[in-house]
Fold this sequence. Notes:
Oligomer: single chain
Order of helices and strands: EEEEEEEEEEE
Structural class: mainly beta
Largest sheet: 7 strands, mixed
Helix content: under 10%
Shape: globular
Strand content: over 45%
Radius of gyration: 14 Å
Number of helices: 0
Amino acid sequence: QVQLVESGGGLVQAGGSLSLSCAASGRTFTNYAMAWFRQAPGKERKFVAAISWSGGNTVYASSVQGRFTISRDNAKNTVDLQMTSLKPDDTAVYFCAADSLDIATPAEPGTFTPFEYDYWGRGTQVTVSP
Length: 130
């Protein structure tokens, strides 16, 4: 089992920045690719970004490319999401997820779907006001 706990959500104005963090515990953190997904009210959960076991490979949704940065610290068992130039459309609950399969180059379709991931956090709310 892997336990994931997100933190760092909140309310920010459009154009602002926010950082999310996910703390992992349980099994060996370096054996899991990590990702962030988000879910707006009434909508399906969507892929945001993912990072490989080593941190050397990252992939992003086109909607956040250039604005968001995913990173991990394997010594601290954390994965972060730095978000800049935030837009109201970024408003959602953000979830951290862990996948026992590493990210391929290029990333396989499963990387972008929630069904690929083995463990999930409970989420943290991000609200971007106009």
